[in-house]
Design goal:
Pemi-like Protein 1, Chain: D, two-stranded antiparallel ribbon, about 90 residues, alpha+beta, 3 helices, two-stranded antiparallel sheet
Amino acid sequence: MPRVSIRRQGGAAIMTIPAEVLKTLHLDVGAQMDIAVTEEGFTARPVEQPKRRYTLKELLRGATPDTMRQLQEDTAWAHEGPAIGREL
């Protein structure tokens, strides 16, 4: 288990996380952590950040011709009527 020191930087107390720990947790500088405090110490866990961009392959994962056909049937009502804005 790596040992770290707490130091003062400005008005904050800073604890350095060793590079090998960041690599093991797949984290980088700027990652957010949730900290749970107990009487014995604390536990820091990475916050799951939602992806901001998805590939088409990720978006269509699990889509089959049957599920796409069902989606078309379920949303057919939205294709009726005249255009309201500038949609095609």
